[in-house]
Amino acid sequence: MEKRNLEKSILLELEREHHLKVQEEVRSKLAALEVGHQNEIQRTISAFARLQKYAESRKEIDRRLDVHFQRRIAEVLDKHLSMVQRDHEQKSQIVERRIRDDAALEEAKRKEQAIKEEKLRQERARQEAEARQKEAAKLAAETRKTAFEAAQKEAAEKEAAEKEAAKLREAAASQSSQNSQNNNAGIKVFADKYALEAESRRRALVHNQVPENIHLRKEFAKYDRQIAKSISKLMPTTDNVRSRASELIKALDGQDCPRPIACCLFANKIISIVKSRNTKDKTFGNLAFACGYVMLLVTNQVPDAMDYLLAEFNRVCIYTVPKHLHALNAQARNRDYYRLIGYQEENGQLESTESYLTYVVAYVKLYAAMIQTEIKGVRHPHGLAEGWKWLALFLNALPATTATACALHAFLKMAGFALHKKYGSQFLKILDVISRCFLPALKDQGNKMQSEAVNNLQNYLNDKIYLQEPEGQYLVQQLLSKELFM
Question: Are strands 187-191 and 323-327 parallel, antiparallel or unpaired?
């Protein structure tokens, strides 16, 4: 029994030791697993930290790349804009050279044509002289009769000339006393003496050289239609302007129509484009500049035409003189007064003030486009110097009213850029006069149309519009759409 108990005790001891050993191994493995788990957690945390640091570094790199790319984009854009500006300047120079070359070519062709026509005329004269010599005997009997009739005709013409001279003297006397008469009639004339004298001289030229109602005379209808047809096709492209100018120069050089009448027809048709086109359309400015090019090219070849153009401008719009008529009382502000300052009648009714101001703006824009147009190598008979003189006379003599404000803004909008480019600081002094004197006087009137005129002038000065090249000043090669002026 003792032996059996001993074995049992040994077995139990062995089991207990094995059990303890197993527990120890389990504890060791658990400790190892716990240490491994802690290490894995530390590695995970470290990995997350490295990942976060990597993400932040990538964000910094991306930010730097964005700044770099934006800088590169700005540099490329700046280079592109510089190239576009250079390209625009080169195109403008090319257009000017083309117009100048075409003008020289047209001049050469015209001279060549004149030489040919002179030779033909001489040949015809020689043939006619020979024919007259052959028929001398036959015409001898008729000479006395012709001389008698010629004497009668000369007497009639002399009498008509005396009547015409008397009529001109009467017109001159009427013009010289116009101010006093207008004051007596309740109308005060605001204008410089020089401007009134120039207007009177141009009116007398037209009255003396051009018969009345020439548009109704059948003998001139052909030339009237020819000139009107050329001007109706005018568009703001270089090719079109050259073609129209060439056609008009040929029409004014026609042998069958007296030069004064042809010039008068041309002036009337080119300025009446204000009535035939939509002046409120934004493209009217482009058309006005195209007219300016045509008027310069034509008057450069036919200098007499400029006086008739200016006379027509003065007739349709008194502010191109510049001149302003002010009614001193309600009695003077009648239908005759409104007709005198340029209001048009239709079906016995005077147009509205809004319509009148629209046409004033359009006529002044057309006048300003003409005076500021310059072509290198082409002399302008009424260029920027005359525009500068007009601006000075306007501000010195005319009062601040809604009509004068509209006319002034239209002139500055079209010619301000060119005047500032040429006269610089002197032009800025003129603008300062407008800001200090003209605008305050205008604001005192306080009506709806006056408020709009004030805003237009104020915005022109505040935004320095005179630094911006007006749209359409330089012609394009061709229109993007043929319907632009339909």
Answer: antiparallel
Q: What is the pLDDT of residue 446?
A: 64
pLDDT tens-digit series, residues 394-403:
999 999 999 9
What would the mean pLDDT of 64-85 be, rounded to a whole number? 90
Tell me how far apart the alpha carbons of residues 252 and 110 are, in angstroms, rounded to a whole number.
Answer: 12
Q: Which amino acid is at 211?
A: P
Q: Could you tell me what percent of the chain has a pLDDT over 90?
A: 48
Tokens at residue 38, please? 């802690």
Handedness of CA 13, 15, 20, 25 (dihedral sign): positive
3-class state of residue 241 by DSSP: helix
DSSP-derived secondary structure letter, 437: I
Cα-flanking dihedrals φ and ψ of residue 234, to 5°?
A: -70, 135
160 pLDDT above the threshold of 70:
no
Residue from 394, 338, 387, 395 nearest 365 by CA: 387
CB 366 within 8 A of CB 310: no
Whole-model pTM: value is 0.63
| Contacts within 8 Å (CB) and 24+ apart, 462-469 | 465/412, 465/413, 465/416, 466/412, 466/416, 466/417, 466/419, 466/420, 466/427, 466/431, 467/417, 467/420, 468/417, 469/417
**Residues near 196 by beta carbon (within 8 Å), at least 6 away in sequence:** 175, 178, 189, 321, 323
Average pLDDT of 95-120?
A: 88
DSSP 352: P
**Looking at residue 462, what is its pLDDT?**
94
Closest to 236 in 3D by CA, of 383, 369, 78: 369
Strands (E), 302-422: 323-327, 345-346, 349-350
Mean pLDDT, the chain, rounded, equals 84
Give which of 390, 246, 226 is closest to 319, Cα–Cα.
Answer: 390
Distance CA 120, CA 350 (A): 54
Q: Give residue 467's identity as a one-letter amino acid code.
A: L
User: d(Cα 218, Cα 269) in Å, to the nearest integer?
Assistant: 17
For residue 236, is the peptide bond before it cis, meaning its omega torsion is within 30 degrees of 0? no
- Give the pair of three-digit tokens for residue 441: 């006087």
Q: Which amino acid is at 247?
A: E
pLDDT in the model for residue 158: 46
Find the DSSP H helices in 177-210. 178-184, 193-209
Distances, alpha carbon 245 to alpha carbons 97, 159, 439, 483, in Å: 16, 40, 40, 22
Altogether, the residues listed in the chain come to a count of 486
* 379 within 8 A of 300, measured Cβ to Cβ: yes
